[in-house]
């Protein structure tokens, strides 16, 4: 039976792929086979397992997942995105590589008779993948678009479209009509881009919620809208006249969209409202949601639309973020990405054979595609410069706009299906897409360093803050449990009229089910008073009460940051830098129960804290809340004494802890005890600075009867632990520096305790479940990431201006663009 007859349309989602694969393998046998050959009786009955459909499909899925997973682990070392591994895995398993090496490989592992099952499963994967894309899209990002991002997005599409189309027409004048037919379409598809793929790429680079990422996201939204309009017109043009006149498909798509908006969305929203507040989506709701995906896919296909149209619309109309987005990403994303999508890429790789490309066709299509890529780069680069974006950021933006992924691959397949491009052009476009993505990724990583703006020339510490000036602190909250302890510490910092306290409160929420991160600035005067408020509202309300009861000495500026774990620190560092804070307070990643046991550990907090400790533009304090859920002082007036101890072993971090303690000592309810640990034989040269700092502190506290100074002589780390044990249950708060001289006898032997690297040796002992009872621990790291002006010039961060002024000007430019 001939391949054309062997693959009727109703048997497969994309019959052209079956024809292409049959022609490549030379297999013209019938693809129909007995239903009795679905499951194998087993090898013990002399049965060839791979001759049966079900075990063959399982083997293909396992092979595809294993190869792509292995490639992703290898290519991740070079910083390449997941899409490159997926596509290369499909090529590796297809006729382009293993099919060339092993003669009978394709007939055994991917026989033509099993291609239909692959095709159906790939279509299923594609449908659910687009549903996930839809869930991640937040349509309200259009509110952030202004004239600058609109201009960047518009010209990023229009400039390459004009240039590449002109190039295609010029080259087509030297070719026959058949050879030149695909070139204008190639110019079109290489000029478009998609917002979800840009967001995915920025997330993998770790710059999704940076200022640069915000510009790229907003610009890509405009580019996507322009791309959608152009490609829709192109598809209609390349359809037959009868199909264009037939408006039934358009009417059906409008009906499906209207049903989704006015029927499906209200029903799903009613279901979501019945879900417990702050809890994951219930199992029965998840089943209903997945059933809706399948039903919308069936309806789309029955109406003559593409099968992914309905699931995409369903995903878009769902509310982004938790609980729906979180549930979809946790339950559906792993199995779709690592089980089903590998089949989609393998099926794509099976119809691609790079050795079948004629060199003339390759050069023609590659030239048009290259012109389109250069046009996208120049469109974004030139307009960014006109918007006064820094040159380095403009270059990176132009490179980011060249990223392509699954959405573009689907567009290539659609153009191939409508006969707008031939199979050779499709193959060249796919290969070029992978080459460009692999090339731009390391360049962007080399050029763009999101942490360089956080390098400052002046120390931003509590120790270097003037006593008669405003103290600015940034506090990070992950959940409500840490709010009371955080507010108690802020109140203990002793805000006065001469030295008021500005608190920037940042509630960090993990991004799930949304393509673009959010930074929300709350208004304390409009706080929701309903009992059914979200976690952010309750946290904001608590800090609002703190401000109201401070008699004008404290100003609170609350924010909520919704971002991925890997880039969650970006919002934190950005606020700390722009607001010129001297101290950042972050919670420890472990929480403790009332009896002192470890209750839970959150990996997201651990990752964020480590990034903050490495890159913060000011001092950092890690809050280990080991106490019961205590009421803040402004609510519980009976709390009239707050006992604070500072462990002083020496070093810059202990200097900062001492400075914080000194500021607290001015509070009428704080009783401060400073305990200095001394070696048996002190080296005067090593302790000279420590002595100077301590003498200045003691001199400033001479008239404060609430301050006690003690010295303890210890021989080794065991003596240090004994001193710590003696402090148990005597203080509400104990502070200590994070880093100490590892050669010092005071910490010898404590490295075995140092399980939590972010706390340091002594901090880890204090936070251990064996010590301190319900005492709150504050581990302090003084900011020392300071460079001189000459060093900054040498690194290329600024030329003739002060670095902070240059950074502020660059950041204001980006804010103006946003």
UniProtKB/TrEMBL annotation:
Gene3D superfamilies reported in the protein's UniProt record: 1.20.1530.20
Transmembrane recorded as keyword: yes
Main location: membrane
Any GO BP annotation: regulation of pH
One Pfam match: CHX17_C
A GO term, aspect molecular function: antiporter activity
Residue stretches making up the Cation/H(+) antiporter C-terminal domain: 643-783
Transmembrane domains' residue ranges: 52-71, 83-102, 114-137, 149-171, 183-203, 215-238, 244-264, 285-309, 335-355, 362-385, 391-414, 426-448
Protein's membrane topology: Multi-pass membrane protein
Localisation: Membrane
Keyword Membrane: yes
Domain Cation/H+ exchanger transmembrane span(s) in chain numbering: 66-443
Start and end residues of each Cation/H(+) antiporter central domain: 501-628
Cellular component terms (Gene Ontology): endomembrane system; membrane
Keyword entries, A-Z: Ion transport, Membrane, Potassium, Potassium transport, Transmembrane, Transmembrane helix, Transport
Family the UniProt entry places it in: Belongs to the monovalent cation:proton antiporter 2 (CPA2) transporter (TC 2.A.37) family. CHX (TC 2.A.37.4) subfamily.
Protein name: Cation/H+ exchanger domain-containing protein
Organism: Acer saccharum (Sugar maple)
């Amino acid at each position: 039976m001939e391949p054309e007859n062997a693959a009727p349309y109703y048997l497969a989602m994309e019959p052209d792929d079956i024809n292409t694969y049959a022609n490549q393998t030379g297999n013209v046998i019938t693809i129909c086979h007995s239903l009795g050959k679905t499951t194998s009786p087993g090898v013990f009955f002399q049965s060839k397992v791979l001759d049966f459909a079900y075990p063959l499909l399982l083997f293909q899925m396992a092979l595809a997942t294993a190869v792509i997973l292995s490639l992703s682990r290898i290519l991740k070392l070079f910083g390449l995105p997941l899409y490159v591994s997926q596509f290369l895995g499909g090529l590796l398993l297809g006729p382009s590589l293993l099919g060339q090496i092993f003669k009978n490989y394709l007939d055994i592992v991917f026989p033509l008779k099993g291609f239909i099952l692959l095709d159906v499963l790939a279509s299923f994967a594609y449908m659910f993948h687009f549903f996930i894309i839809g869930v991640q899209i937040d349509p309200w990002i259009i509110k952030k678009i202004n004239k600058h991002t609109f201009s960047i997005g518009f010209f990023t599409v229009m400039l390459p479209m004009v240039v590449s189309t002109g190039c295609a027409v010029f080259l087509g004048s030297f070719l026959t009509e058949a050879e030149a037919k695909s070139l204008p379409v190639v110019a079109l598809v290489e000029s478009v881009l998609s917002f979800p793929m840009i967001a995915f790429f920025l997330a993998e680079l770790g710059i999704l919620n940076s200022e640069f990422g915000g510009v790229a996201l907003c610009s890509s939204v405009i580019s996507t809208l322009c791309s959608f309009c152009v490609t829709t017109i192109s598809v209609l043009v390349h359809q037959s006249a009868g199909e264009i006149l037939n408006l039934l498909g358009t009417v059906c798509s409008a009906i499906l969209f209207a049903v989704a908006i006015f029927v499906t969305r209200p029903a799903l929203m009613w279901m979501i409202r019945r879900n417990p507040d702050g809890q994951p989506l219930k199992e029965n709701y998840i089943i209903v949601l997945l059933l809706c995906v399948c039903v919308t896919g069936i309806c789309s296909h029955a109406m003559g639309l593409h099968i992914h149209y309905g699931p995409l619309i369903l995903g878009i109309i769902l509310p982004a973020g938790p609980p729906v987005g979180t549930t979809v990403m946790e339950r559906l994303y792993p199995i779709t990405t690592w089980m089903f999508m590998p089949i989609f890429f393998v099926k794509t790789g099976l119809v691609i054979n790079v050795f079948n490309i004629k060199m003339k066709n390759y050069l023609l299509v590659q030239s048009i595609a290259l012109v389109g890529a250069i046009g996208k780069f120049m469109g974004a680069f030139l307009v960014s410069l006109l918007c006064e974006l820094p040159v380095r950021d403009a270059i990176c933006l132009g490179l980011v706009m060249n990223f392509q992924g699954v959405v573009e691959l689907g567009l290539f397949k659609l153009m191939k299906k409508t006969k707008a491009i031939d199979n050779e052009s499709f193959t060249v476009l796919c290969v070029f897409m992978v080459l460009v993505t692999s090339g731009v990724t390391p360049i962007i990583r080399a050029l763009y360093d999101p942490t360089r703006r956080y390098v400052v020339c002046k120390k931003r510490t509590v120790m270097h803050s003037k006593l008669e000036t405003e103290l600015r602190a940034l506090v990070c909250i992950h959940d409500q449990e840490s709010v009371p302890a955080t507010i108690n510490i802020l109140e203990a910092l002793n805000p006065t009229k001469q030295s008021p306290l500005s608190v920037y409160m940042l509630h960090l929420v993990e991004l799930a089910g949304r393509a673009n991160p959010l930074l929300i600035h709350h208004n304390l005067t409009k706080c929701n008073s309903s009992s059914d408020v979200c976690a952010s509202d309750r946290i904001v309300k608590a800090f609002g009460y703190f401000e109201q009861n401070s008699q004008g000495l404290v100003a609170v500026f609350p924010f909520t940051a919704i971002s991925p774990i890997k880039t969650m620190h970006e919002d934190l560092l950005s606020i700390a830098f722009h607001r010129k804070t001297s101290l950042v307070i972050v919670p420890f990643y472990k929480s403790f129960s009332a009896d002192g046991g470890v209750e839970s550990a959150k990996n997201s907090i651990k990752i964020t804290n480590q990034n903050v400790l490495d890159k913060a533009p000011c001092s950092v304090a890690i809050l280990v809340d080991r106490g019961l859920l205590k009421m803040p002082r402004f609510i519980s007036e009976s709390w009239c004494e707050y006992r604070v101890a500072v462990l002083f072993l020496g070093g810059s971090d202990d200097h900062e802890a001492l400075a914080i303690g000194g500021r607290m000592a001015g509070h009428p309810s704080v009783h401060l005890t400073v305990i200095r640990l001394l070696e048996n034989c002190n080296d005067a040269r090593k302790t000279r600075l420590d002595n100077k700092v301590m003498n200045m502190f003691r001199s400033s506290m001479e008239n404060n009867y609430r301050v006690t100074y003690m010295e303890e002589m210890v021989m080794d780390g065991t003596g240090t632990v004994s001193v710590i044990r003696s402090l148990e249950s005597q203080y509400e708060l104990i502070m200590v520096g994070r880093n100490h001289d590892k050669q010092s006898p005071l910490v010898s032997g404590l490295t075995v305790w140092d399980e939590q690297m972010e706390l340091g040796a002594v901090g880890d002992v204090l936070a251990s479940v064996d010590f301190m009872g319900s005492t709150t621990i504050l581990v302090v790291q003084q900011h020392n990431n300071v460079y001189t002006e000459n060093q900054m010039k040498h690194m290329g961060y600024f030329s003739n201006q002060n670095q902070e002024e240059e950074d502020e000007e660059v950041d204001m430019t980006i804010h103006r663009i946003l």
